[in-house]
Each structure stands twice: as C-alpha cells, then as structure tokens.
Amino acid sequence: MFKRFLLVVVLSLWAFAANAAQVILVFGDSLSAAYGIPADTGWVTLLEQRVRQHKPGYRVINASISGETTSGGRYRIGQALNEHRPAAVILALGANDGLRGLPLDATRANLDAIIAACQKRKIQVLLVGMRLPPNYGSAYTAKFRAIYEQAARRYKIPLLPFLLEGFADQPELFQADGLHPGVAAQPLIMEQVWKHLQPMLTASR
Length: 205
Hints:
Strand order of the largest sheet: 2-1-3-4-5
Order of helices and strands: HEHEHEHHEHEH
Largest sheet: 5 strands, parallel
Helix content: 40-55%
C-alpha cells in the first residue's frame, strides 16, 4: 500500500515538474515539421533531447505545419501563444513565401506581426532566416534575405541567418525533391539552432 502511495506521489511530482517547465515553441513550416522523414529524426526532436539533457527547466513543443506561410503563421500565432504560453519562440517561417514568389512587403509585415505579438507578452524570439536558390534572381533573393536581417535589428532579437547554413549546396543531404533536408542533415540543423538558442535560455533561467 505504501509503495503504491509512493509511486503516485512520484508520478504526481514528475507531472508537476513537466507542466512547470518553460516551453520553447518551434513555429515553422515543413523544414521544422520533419517532412518526409521519421518524426523522431527531425531537428526539433533532436533539439528536445538536447534541451532535456542540458536545460531540464525547459521543454520543446513543435507547432510547425508543412506548407505554412508567414500569413498562416500570423493568423495562428495568437492561439499558439495562448495554448502553449512559451518562454521562447523559434520563428522559422518564410521559405514558402519566397519559393512562391509572394510579395516581400507582405512577408515582412507578417514576420513583424508575429514578433510583435511575442514581444508584447515578453516572450523571447529566435528568428531563423531563409535564403532562396539563385534562380529566383539576385535582386529578389537579396531583398528576401534582408527581411530577416532588418527584422532582427528592428526588434533587437537574435538571428540565425540561414537554417541550412553550411550544407545547402550538398544534394546528398537532401531528399529527392532537392528542397527538404534528409535525416543526415537534421543534426546539423539542430546544432546551429542550439548554438543560438542556448544563450537565450542561460539568460532567462
């Protein structure tokens, strides 16, 4: 009887600790949603494992949706913040805007709105930049890249300049569509995100 009581107490404390942990919310598209690969091999799951090991006061929740644009993210950011009440948001949207050639002003305004919604609630934001293939033209790709740099300066938030930094030109690390990173690329992405995320967590705990 006592052992059963002790087990209930331990499980209750564990559940309380899990619920009390501060949330890191990943808010992205298919590049963060483990598109085309097993979910447990994606960089967000690998980040969750790293956080659990080095920052046990935090837990990672993935709110990424394949095909998401900044417009879709702007529409659902309020609900996501209300539901998960994160301490930090990893904002990794915009790739689909660029690939579809959507107006840059709209992408900029949507990212601004998402960041502002987070900062209004005192939530830290790590902005993850994207870059486009050169066939989109130098003028468009340069302006697209600048959106992230300008937003980071404007809102004084950390910027990971490019989610696929260091291997975007290595086709063997991508799936057959040439757009989505394969399993072997996921640890590389996680390490880059962790490098920028870790100082934010150190500062807040």
